[in-house]
Design a protein that fits this description.
42% strand, 5-stranded mixed sheet, 4-stranded antiparallel sheet, mainly beta, Immunoglobulin-like
């Protein structure tokens, strides 16, 4: 009896993964990232934010949500992502039209950058009274986007750091997505290995808790997405391959690589195949 129970349990466990949505497969509405023209700024600067989204299953529609901005409450130290306690919170709305926005639409499988730009002005006094460590490492100002789509709440936030005393961070750049050493010219076939290439990571000064200064090199990571099938690794390092495990493409198909540099930098490279 115990053996029969064990075999049944093993059978259930062996197939359970197939019941979960593959995070790298595009389908329902998702916010994939927030693109800032400047991930780090001087106090008083204005930053332009755009959402990078996907809504393959939506088939084309207008989605409107809320946007709020405030001083970072201390998210890195466990604080809730919220602007509830900042009396100087700035509020507004944000609209995504997956039909008419230039970078979305059916020709891009409703996956791309929303056209609306949210202009955020970082308070000029954000570094006033801050320690040398805070000024060099940066003090965050956050923007939170919230949407309710198909009965589900979707949130994304972006932290822009105000910095003084060192060079500001730039967004990383993906230069190519390749298969077998050449740029993608078609949607991957089963077992193809794809890899992202990028410009070199930046080095920067960082002040430790004991006020010693060291030079660090930012870590870059790629998040992968495809419009059909799945990948062996949804996340890789630059120059590290991920294997396409199937299926055959259906309709307009997308291969998307998103790069983040751990300092607020974000960028993307997309291949669309008819």
């Amino acid at each position: 009896m115990k053996l029969i129970f064990f075999l049944i349990l093993l059978s259930l466990l062996s197939c359970s993964d197939d019941t979960f949505r593959k995070v790298e497969t595009l389908g329902s509405f998702r916010i994939l990232g927030v693109v800032a023209d400047k991930p780090e700024v001087s106090p008083g600067d204005t930053v332009s934010l755009q959402l990078y989204v996907t809504d393959v299953d939506g088939g084309g529609r207008t989605i409107t949500g809320s946007v709020v901005s405030c001083i970072d409450p201390g998210i890195a130290y466990g604080a809730t992502v919220s602007c509830d306690n900042d009396p100087a919170t700035v509020s507004g709305s944000y609209t995504i039209n997956t039909i008419t926005d230039t970078d979305l639409g059916s020709s891009h499988a409703y996956t791309g950058a929303a056209q609306e730009v949210e202009a955020i002005t970082i308070p000029g006094t954000l570094l006033t009274g801050r320690s040398n460590r805070e000024r060099i490492n940066g003090v965050g100002y956050i923007t939170i986007f919230t949407f309710v789509v198909d009965g589900k709440t979707h949130k994304a936030f972006k932290t822009i750091k105000a910095v003084s005393g060192r060079a500001l961070n730039n967004n990383p750049t993906l230069t190519d997505i390749q298969s077998d050493g050449v740029s993608l010219t078609a949607f991957p076939a089963k077992n193809d290995k794809i890899v992202a290439l990028a410009d070199p990571a930046e080095s920067y000064s960082y002040v430790n808790i004991d006020n010693s200064t060291e030079t660090k090199t930012e870590a870059q990571q790629i998040a992968w997405y495809v419009s059909s099938g799945k990948l062996s690794k949804p996340k890789t390092n630059v120059n590290e391959s991920t294997e396409y495990l199937g299926d055959a493409k259906v309709g307009t198909s997308v291969v998307l690589g998103l790069i983040r540099d751990e300092r607020g930098g974000f960028n993307y490279l997309r291949f669309v195949f008819p």
